[in-house]
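User: Structure with magnesium ion, C-alpha cells only please.
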Amino acid sequence: MLPAKVKIVEVGPRDGLQNEKEFVSTKVKVDLVNRLANAGLQNVESASFVSPKWVPQMADGAAVMAGIERRPGTIYSALTPNLRGFEAALEAKTDEIVIFGAASEAFSQKNINCSIAESITRFEPVAKAAKEAGLRVRGSISCALGCPYQGDVPIEAVVDVVQRMKALGCDEIDIADTIGVGTAGRTRDVMAAVSKVFPREQLSGHFHDTYGQAVANIYASLQEGIEIFHASVAGLGGCPYAKGATGNVATEDVIFLLNGLGIETGVDLDQLVEIGDFISRAIGKPSASRVGRALLAKKRDGVAPCV
Ligand code: HMG
Ligand code: MG
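Assistant:
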C-alpha cells in the first residue's frame, strides 16, 4: 500500500542554484525560499555553509537566512560540512543541518576532500553540537545509486554509510542519486536494503533526473513505503562535482504524480508552477519541469502544448 501522505523537501534554493555560474542575487534567493514556503512546502533547503571557494554561488548563505520570513512549522535547512559550517548555520537560525557524505570513496574525495571514514569523523562533533543546540540533523548519502567516477556502487556500501549516519543520531537520511542513473529496480532494492537498518519513515529519496528516471524511482520508493522526497522547483540544478548531472526531479512533476495517486502533500501546484516560471526567468533558463511547462501553457493560452 502506498503512503497516504508524503513530505516534500524542496531543495531548489540550495541544490538547484548551487551550480549556476552567474551569481543569483540574495534578493532572488530570499524571494524563492519565501514563495516556496508559502506554497505549502514544509521543508525548504535554503542555504549551504560550505567553502565559498568550492561553491561560490552559496557564499551568501548567512544573508539568505537573515532575509527570509520564517513561516511557522516550516523547516529551513542548510548544508554544513564541518564545525565551521555548523557555527555559521546556528548563528543564522537554521532549523536543520545537513551533513553530507557519500557511498563512493571517489566522490567523497572530489566533493568534500576526504575519505568516507574521515567524513564521518568530521561529522561526529557537528551532529553532537547540533543535537545539543536542539537542531534537527539530516544525513545525505551521495552516489547511492551510482558514481560519476567509480560507476557501480554496491548496495552494502550504501547500507554501511546509513548505519554510520544512524550512529551519529541523524533524524533523517537521504538516499541520493547524484547523477540520476538509478532505475526503478535498483531503487527498490536499495530502499528495501536500507530500510532494514534505519526506520523507513525517516528515509528520503533524493533523485536527480539526468536519465529521466526520477519519477519512476519515486514510484518505486513509494512502493517500498518511503514517505519523504526531495525535489527542486523547475528541476533546477546539477552538482558542481558531478559533471553532466542535471537537476533534481522537478517539484511540479512530483506533486503532479502524487496528486494523481491521491497522496497528500499540502503543496499548491498552481503556485508552484508560478514559482517555477519566476525562477526560470530570474536565471534566464527554460524550466526543466514538463508539468510546469504544460500547465503554464494551458493557463496562458488555454491549451496544452504539442511537444
Ligand atoms: P578543504 O579544502 O579540505 O578544507 O575543504 P579546509 O579546512 O582546508 O578549508 C579550505 C578553505 O575553505 C579555507 O579557506 C577554509 O577557511 C574554508 P582559506 O584558508 O583557503 O581561505 N572553509 C570554509 N569556509 C566557509 N564555510 C565553511 C568552511 N570550511 C572551510 N564551512 C570542505 C573541505 C568540506 C570545506 C570543502 O570541500 C567544501 O566546502 N565542500 C563543499 C562541497 C559542496 O558544497 N558540494 C555541493 C553540495 S553536496 C551535493 O550537492 C549533493 C547532495 O545534493 C546529494 C546528492 O545529490 O548527491 C547533498
Ligand atoms: Mg543533489
